[in-house]
Specification:
It is a lipid-anchor. It contains 12 helices and 26 strands. By secondary structure, the protein is of the alpha+beta class. The longest helix is centred in the C-terminal third of the chain and has 16 residues.
């Protein structure tokens, strides 16, 4: 089944729903709805995993092993849940399994998978795999990874060395257990999208005192003969020669379509004016030939129906096809997300040596709000950064024997700002707390400009990189206009900014920076941001939501912050016509 959409307000009215406000200007909601239909708003892609193995250990005496793969999901607390089993492949040390595992890929969550290969004993070969007791089977080894580690690979395949849990820790590396390969495919019926502008002429008037109010419904015919609606247009009032806004379809060229033209009635009983049955390829021919197709109307004749050919015609005024690459396509082509972090060291955080400080390092190992934000965001993004060297800065503090700095290297170096891995950020942060004096005020402009400089230099070098700056702060920014200017300028760069507010401050003004909650940002010179690059969330809001959820439905700060990042990435790439190499 394909995806299609047109104007939201008109489309809802067409099926008896509530139309959106008329004050929408010239904005075409069809484009926005199309992108959402492709999974761009909040990335949830269906991934199909397939499995193969090589050089498995032979655990049978008179034949080869009979392997089966069992997949588990590993939770953050270490608990594992079985989710899938392949079929059993008989007598093979190099099996390729047919059964595939489908999982929903969430960008903003670390999805840890455990793969365990078992040798199924001969006496159980006639037992359904779902009924097998795993404790009665022999282990051939296991492997563990995050789903994101698979999808970022150029061929979306990852090969593991299988290990045995019961092996002695002194076992030599030469002990051979075989390898398991996991391959991922994104489940999309078609990435080719057809954009069409449809028009009708000489429609029949169905209303008594006015002209018809026509709209179109496009349906896909399936093998059983049933038509499944996949698209609708807006309603055009009092128009017998209507031209509708563009519609978008992503279905196969030869799929049979039924296009029905209805007259809208507020009671929901819409009158069929006429219809045509064409494939996408047929509609393309109508466009290239600049010809119209007569509508027909099924008319009862005795116990049967005949198609009455009508004067009204359907025209295709525009037909174009484009390939819409997905977020995972860019990852597989080698694009990276590079993580950067900036930490607020202003005095309002409190003395780091006292337990009531937001910067207090608990000897028990319990993370403070700054550490939690660094760890949880970094834990996700680290998989998409090849060298895992992260720029890290502080702002709002006075380094030893120096003036207040609003962008200093967290590692204390005057030459370079990068640290090694998430652990490196944590160590540099803890060290900086005892090497600087907390000061103020809270200024974002310097760190945003620093991140923007790195992004612009990467862009100039044609690097396949997109940058993500995490700013963690306890107070409202005091250089609001300078921050807006920096953000507007940065909106043209491959950069997104995530802001976490910690502590009990009133962050209402901060929401201005997040275009989700207001108008597009404007600079002091009147320039408007080319796109929304900011996502802001108060840490306490996420914590309160988490505490009100069950363990399984916990809302983490990562999910709240990163939900829009794939959208921002794709908006940037598509607006600049940057395509992944195939």
């Amino acid at each position: 089944m394909g995806n299609c959409c047109s104007d939201v307000g008109g489309g809802m009215a067409a099926v008896g729903g509530t139309a959106a406000s008329a004050a929408t200007g010239n904005q075409n909601d069809a484009v926005d709805m199309f992108f959402k239909s492709r999974g761009i708003h909040g990335l949830f892609s269906q991934i199909e995993l397939s499995f193969s193995a090589s050089n498995l250990q032979n655990r049978d005496v008179f034949s080869k092993s009979d392997p089966m793969v069992v997949v588990y999901i590993k939770e953050r607390d270490g608990a594992i849940t079985e989710v899938f089993r392949t079929e059993v492949v008989l007598n093979s040390l190099n099996p390729t399994w047919i059964t595939k595992y489908t999982i929903t890929y969430h960008f903003e969550v670390v999805q840890t998978l455990l793969f365990h290969v078992f040798d199924v004993d001969t006496q159980f070969h006639n037992v359904d795999v779902k009924m097998l007791k795993l404790e009665e089977q022999q282990s051939l080894g296991e492997a563990c990874c995050a789903l994101s580690e698979i999808v970022i690979k150029p061929n979306r395949s990852l090969t593991f060395d299988l290990v045995r849990r019961e092996e002695s820790v002194t076992a030599t590396r030469s002990q051979h257990q075989g390898k398991l390969t996991v391959h991922a495919e994104e489940c999309i019926s078609s990435k080719t999208t057809a954009e069409m502008v449809l028009r009708c002429s000489d429609l029949e008037s169905k209303d008594l005192f006015s002209k018809s109010d026509p709209f179109l419904v496009i349906s896909k015919l399936v093998e059983s003969g049933i038509s499944i609606p996949v698209c609708k247009t807006e309603v055009l009032k009092n128009d017998l020669n209507p031209t509708w806004k563009p519609v978008f379809l992503n279905i196969q060229q030869d799929s049979p379509l039924v296009i029905e033209c209805f007259n809208f009635n507020s009671n929901g009983k819409h009158d069929l004016i006429g219809k045509v049955q064409k494939s996408l390829a047929d509609l393309e021919k109508l466009h290239s030939g600049r010809e119209g197709e007569n509508l027909f109307l099924p008319t009862p004749v005795g116990h049967d129906f005949q198609n009455k050919i009508l004067k009204g015609k359907l025209f295709v005024d525009k037909f174009s096809e484009t390939v819409q690459h997905t977020f995972l396509d860019y990852l597989a082509a080698g694009f990276e997300l590079n993580f950067m972090v900036a930490i607020d060291f202003t005095a309002s955080n409190g003395n780091p040596r006292l337990p009531d400080s937001l910067h207090y390092i608990d000897p028990s190992g319990r993370l403070n709000a700054y550490q939690k934000a660094i760890y949880e965001v970094g834990e996700v993004l680290q998989f998409y950064d090849a060298d895992k060297r992260f720029p890290a800065w502080g702002f709002g503090a006075r380094p030893i024997d120096g003036p207040v700095s609003h962008c200093f290297n967290l590692n204390g170096s005057s030459n370079y700002c990068e640290v090694e891995g998430i652990r490196g950020i944590m160590m540099a942060y803890a060290s900086a707390l005892f090497n600087v004096s907390l000061a103020g005020p809270t200024l974002f402009g310097h760190v945003i400009n620093k991140a923007a400089l790195i992004a612009s230099q990467s862009l100039a070098n044609d690097a396949q990189k997109y940058f993500v700056l995490l700013i963690i702060t306890d107070g409202v920014v005091t250089d609001l206009q300078e921050t807006k200017d920096a953000l507007v300028k940065a909106s043209d760069l491959p950069l997104s900014i995530l802001i976490v507010g910690v502590g009990g401050a009133d962050f209402k003004e901060m929401e201005i920076l997040d275009a989700d909650k207001g108008e597009r940002l404007e600079s002091s010179t009147g320039r408007v941001a080319s796109r929304d690059i900011v996502q802001f969330v108060p840490f306490r809001d996420v914590q309160s939501k988490s505490s009100s959820q069950s363990k399984g439905g916990e809302i983490s700060i990562v999910q709240a912050l990163l939900a829009e990042l794939p959208t921002q990435f794709l908006t940037y790439m598509r607006s600049r016509d940057i395509k992944p190499s195939t």
